């Protein structure tokens, strides 16, 4: 028996679940889990269906589903193959370390094909875990040249997603467009608070009582892409800058790894600037 994930988004109408399940049954596919959501404000329907069975003709199944769905429906049929990813880094190691350790022990749900850094700082750690590391210097270089060098590396590996694991360079609109919906970033706050450098020092100086982190898709608007997941941690007057940084990094790791797990399991739909997440 094979596993199949069916992802459908379309305008909402009466009877969608009945039409979808009838088609799947006709193709001898057994539904083992089904989640659906209706965005009533936008009259949109979303569903994630996990099936088992032998899929003999994926094209025919997709065509039959589309015949039974409203116009402008989107249907994705996904076999249980691991995603391929590239990770972009600067100097901070904590998010990369979590990703590479899980990758090493085959618990990431994806394969890390390469790590690209604009500093050499994380080369030794990356290569010790058997992952190719590519250094792309950004100094004294136009952004389009810098990004073209990154693209040349990424495109060698046919990756599904780019993960920005504390990659501290702002990507151009052209770069983002080339990988639309495929770039995942971690932000050091509930967006858009404490924008810029030294976020935890800013938080410390403001005397905040809650710190947090946000994982989101990257869009043209800096740090404003669709949010995948967020977490917080309570702090108080006993926290100095070092304690704030330490707590913040723990949240960043947690949020990024949770977001990646959801994405690698095909549990995230993007709808405008929001996401529907079937946990």
UniProtKB/TrEMBL annotation:
Domain ACT: 5-80
Enzyme Commission numbers on file: 3.5.1.10
Gene Ontology BP terms: 'de novo' IMP biosynthetic process; one-carbon metabolic process
Catalysed conversion reaction: (6R)-10-formyltetrahydrofolate + H2O = (6S)-5,6,7,8-tetrahydrofolate + formate + H(+)
The keyword Hydrolase is assigned to this record: yes
EC category: hydrolase
Record's keyword terms, sorted: Hydrolase, One-carbon metabolism, Purine biosynthesis
A UniProt-annotated Pfam family: ACT
Pathway noted in the entry: Purine metabolism; IMP biosynthesis via de novo pathway; formate from 10-formyl-5,6,7,8-tetrahydrofolate: step 1/1
Molecular functions per Gene Ontology: formyltetrahydrofolate deformylase activity
Active-site residues per Swiss-Prot or TrEMBL entry: 223
Entry superkingdom: Bacteria
Keyword flag Hydrolase: yes
Gene3D superfamilies: 3.30.70.260, Formyl transferase, N-terminal domain
Family per similarity comment: Belongs to the PurU family.
Function (record text): Catalyzes the hydrolysis of 10-formyltetrahydrofolate (formyl-FH4) to formate and tetrahydrofolate (FH4).
Name the record gives this protein: Formyltetrahydrofolate deformylase
Organism: Pedobacter soli
Lineage: Bacteria, Pseudomonadati, Bacteroidota, Sphingobacteriia, Sphingobacteriales
């Amino acid at each position: 028996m094979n596993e199949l994930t069916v992802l459908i988004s379309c305008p909402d109408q009466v009877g969608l679940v009945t039409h979808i399940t009838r088609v799947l049954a006709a193709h001898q596919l057994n539904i083992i889990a089904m989640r659906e959501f209706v965005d009533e404000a936008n009259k949109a329907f979303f569903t994630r269906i996990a099936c088992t069975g032998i899929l003999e003709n994926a094209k025919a199944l997709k065509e039959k589903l589309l015949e039974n769905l409203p116009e402008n429906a989107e249907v994705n049929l996904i076999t249980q193959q691991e995603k391929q990813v590239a990770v972009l880094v600067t100097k901070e190691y904590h998010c990369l370390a979590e990703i590479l350790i899980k990758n090493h022990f085959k618990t990431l749900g994806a394969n890390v094909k390469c790590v690209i850094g604009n500093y050499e700082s994380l080369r030794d750690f990356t290569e010790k875990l058997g992952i190719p590391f590519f250094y792309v210097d950004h100094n004294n270089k136009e952004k389009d040249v810098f990004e073209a060098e990154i693209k040349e590396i990424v495109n060698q590996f046919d990756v599904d997603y780019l993960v920005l694991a504390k990659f501290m360079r702002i990507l151009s609109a052209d770069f983002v467009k080339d990988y639309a919906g495929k770039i995942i970033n971690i932000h050091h706050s509930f967006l858009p608070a404490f924008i810029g450098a030294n976020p935890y020092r800013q938080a410390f100086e403001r005397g905040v009582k809650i710190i947090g982190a946000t994982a989101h898709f990257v869009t043209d608007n800096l740090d404003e892409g669709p949010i995948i997941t967020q977490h917080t941690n309570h702090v108080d007057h006993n926290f100095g800058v070092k304690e704030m940084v330490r707590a913040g990094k723990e949240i960043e790791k947690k949020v990024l790894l949770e977001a990646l797990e959801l994405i690698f399991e095909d549990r995230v739909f993007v709808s405008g600037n929001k996401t529907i997440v079937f946990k």
